[in-house]
Amino acid sequence: MYRTPEAEDVTEAGDGSRSASGEANASVTDGGPAKVAASPIGFGQPEASEEEGKPKRKRRRRRRGKRGGKNGSATTQGTAASPSETEQSDSPNAVEKPPAFQKPLASQKPQAKPVEPAVYAAIDLGTNNCRLLVAKRNREGFRVIDAYSRIVRLGEGVVRSGELSEGAMDRALEALTVCAAKMERRGVTRVRSIATEACRTARNGPAFVERVKRETGVELDIVSTADEARLAVTGCAPLLDPGHAAALVFDIGGGSTELMWVQQETPLPQSKSRALIKDWTSLPCGVVTLAETYGGGEVSRGLFETMVGDVFDRLTPFHKRLSEHLEDDFPYHLLGTSGTVTTIAGIHLDLKSYDRSRVDGAWVAKDEVSAVTESLLAMNLAERAAHPCVGVERADLVLAGCAILEAISRAWPADKLRVADRGLREGILFSLMEEDEANRSRRGRRRRRRRKKTTQPTVSEQPQSPDNGATN
What we know:
The protein is an alpha/beta fold. It contains 15 helices and eleven strands. α9 runs parallel beside α14 and α10 (339-348) crosses α12.
């Protein structure tokens, strides 16, 4: 079971603790080892009167014991010393043994251990995939320390039945159990887990979320389409080309497709820009829903055009809305994040096995995208499954994704498409880190205000004139 560890108090009691063996160094409280002065009368030496000798020796022993404790013997906080300790204390060369535990002086502040950096995690449970990313923050953004992805097809059959199937939920639960174990092993301190279109539309989506929490400890948040669009842009923002004034960012998912028109405040080369979502829309169709509606196994040219037409019709209202504010020569590019665009980039680069370092951030021209689509249409299902950049799990979905991308390209015929192997998970991580940074800034401001108040002199502390404040 996964649980997020609470922040621990790392302040120690002080530097005076010692080992369990009881060994201790000499006390350095007064700058060096303390010595006990020798008694003026030798230990056990009788007085002149023999009648009072024995009782007096006993009394002297008791008094010496008290003096030893008072003058720095091995007793602490008024505890009587043992006979052996008293004998050692009467020796001129005896060195005091400090107690096994010493409280720090009032002037000595306990030293706190350095706080470990936060470990962040993001889970994206989509209609088709379950993905996890675990990272730590660094100067460049964050450093990934663990990742996981599995195709679960949670939205399988939702179009027909309106509910998540038992098999689909079991596959998702299995993947989320792996995610929970990874997060616990990595010591995750901050996490956000989201569920998207499949859980949004299925009647039993909320019940499934409760089951996930009960069986795995993962708390899923069913996000809105607006939140999903915002996270997608946040995750892809580093790939926006500063040489273009805007970009159409799109995320082709399993059950929905989000499109965001993003403009940059300073679209100049070598300048830092801020991405602003000017408009957006969400289409209730993705690779899973489109393939289940039209079939994804054997796709003819006619069936492919039917799928493109369906998606284009859904895009028309958003396209008209944007066209009212754009000139024909307005500089923009396409930026896509999904399994569809990464597959197209891998095929275009002729990769023998998928390589994220070459795919993420790659540019693919419009005619190169069309060439890859034509090659996939020429393959049958078995040939697509055998392709190293497609595989068995995507073989019946990739052409549905190509149809969605073709509809977007016809509505916005940009010359270039930039490919992003990043998206919602990265957006979640950036959002969590920004929240923590904002909280630290607020706490710092509050501390500075408190210090300012405490250092301001009160009325009684204000300096007075030589005539004690009297006025003429």
